[in-house]
Amino acid sequence: MHYLRLTSIAVLLTASCAASATSFVVTTDTLGSATVGTTDTTSDISSSFGDDKIVLAARDDAASFVASQGEIRGARLEAALQHIRQQAPQLQADDLQLAQAILVL
């Protein structure tokens, strides 16, 4: 009976380690791809809008937007997002990526 209990514990421990490793890989892959998308957007925006007054004025609103996971949308951020999309319609970025890029400026 003692052997069966030890075997069960070993199997459960092995399964939980494998699940943790898989979760870690999925998490790092997700974060890596998100970082690449944000980096590309950031470089596009910083080269084009680094001295744009409308975009720079939206930094506080962008910080609130990012910190609240998109719940808080300020008027200056809305104006900046609209301005960016008008000036660079080729950008394929969502609002959160643009707000993160504004914070980097």
UniProtKB/TrEMBL annotation:
<dbReference type="InterPro" id="IPR012661">
    <property type="entry name" value="CHP02448"/>
</dbReference>
<dbReference type="Pfam" id="PF09498">
    <property type="entry name" value="DUF2388"/>
</dbReference>
<protein>
    <submittedName>
        <fullName>DUF2388 domain-containing protein</fullName>
    </submittedName>
</protein>
<feature type="signal peptide">
    <location>
        <begin position="1"/>
        <end position="21"/>
    </location>
</feature>
<keyword id="KW-0732">Signal</keyword>
